[in-house]
Amino acid sequence: MWDAVAITVIVVFGIALAIWLWWRSRIFYSASDMAKQVFPVWAAQGPFDSGAESAAAMRNAYLAVLGTDQTEEMADGIEGHATAYDADPETWEETRRTALEGASSDALTLAEGISAAESINKEFIEDRGHRLEFTKQPDGSTAAVYKQTLSDEEIEKKKKDDDEAIVSGIGQGLLNDVESSEEARELVEFLSDLYRAEMDEEPDVSALGRVWLALFTAGIEKDEPEPEPEIDPEIFQTFKRLNEAHLATMPSDLEWGENPGCFEAHLKRKHDNPLFPEPDREVTQVQIDEARKRDQEDALELQDKLLELLSDFKEMPAAGTMDDFSVLRERIDDLLDEAAGIGGDAEETAESLNEIRNSLVDSIRESLKDNDEALEAIDKAEAFHQERVKTIHTPFAAQLVRINEGDLIPAMLSETPETIRLVMQMMKGENKKKVINAACDLLESTLAEGADILLADEKLKAIRDESNFEEL
User: Which of 249, 292, 259, 256 is nearest to 271 (CA)?
Assistant: First the structure.
């Protein structure tokens, strides 16, 4: 069968905000003039705002065209280039334009890949102690290399520093509130007593925040399927009562993110929403901040999975079977599903994954352009994928599995009639019948209580659509 035949795929992956994975067995042939090879790649990364920016592009060009050893030999010259550029930027810009005029398509492609790699470095991974660099390999090819720029100890220290900043901020906020709130004072005294009993010492600002965060997180985990942490129920209930009393004294203006992820979006959905039980409608800024933190952590974890995917792909041989590339495509699809469920910051990673996927499929098509049977199978698979995306990657549909099951009905009724109809089409069997009945009951009872539900009639029609009952 065609899918078992070994094929050679030359892959050029375009990525909007992530990385352009560029893979070729031969990129540049030897040339007598080093500048003739390096300058076009440097030039295509411009224009530059400063000598430092131009020098960084020059170093990236040397790495990609000539490799690590020769780049190190030119280290002093590259460093001096920054000063030279700043001394006469007009002349250097003219030089750049001249070099760009003679740039080959290979040089332009490589420069675009370098620029994309720098984008992901700055936005995603550089602060976390890693970099992606295009570097010439001993066999003459150029590959994207994932480098660790900080030691394990430094990376671990940075994580600890970030954690310390979070708990210190929480603790300081509580202490600031003590000055104007009796409720805050009682909460701080309670947390301090807990810390003294456990550690036999006075809590500092960070310790205060750490105790509060541990108890607050335990409250979230009580609604999750994982086992609850071992906290005395009486201690937890006291904390919950004191914390809620404190939160009730805080300003009511809530600050929502511009592009909330799954958990923050669900809180926004519940806020002052008559479809939810009354206690759930009261949302605090602390809950919003904690939900946003969970969404951001999930988005960062997804970025790590993307980098792992890129790293694994880098290890694949240039010649591989269709099965090899099918496995890669399936991994990308799984990550796209996960990105749709996370939402928010994960949307940028999803854009990168889609660019990778499109380039992969285009490359496979190009390699099999003379095999009509293979191309037909690929087209069918892609048509199925696109239809699936229309359903699964609808934000609410993708996030259903991440919200509490008990919130499903009011959450669905808070969406548009089109989304409700889509969700109903996804459901099958006896469970679908229960959802239909429960949704109709909740919507009708809420309307009977005098609540104003936008597009209520259209939502009822979407639930009661005859096609929903044909599948029961």
Answer: 256
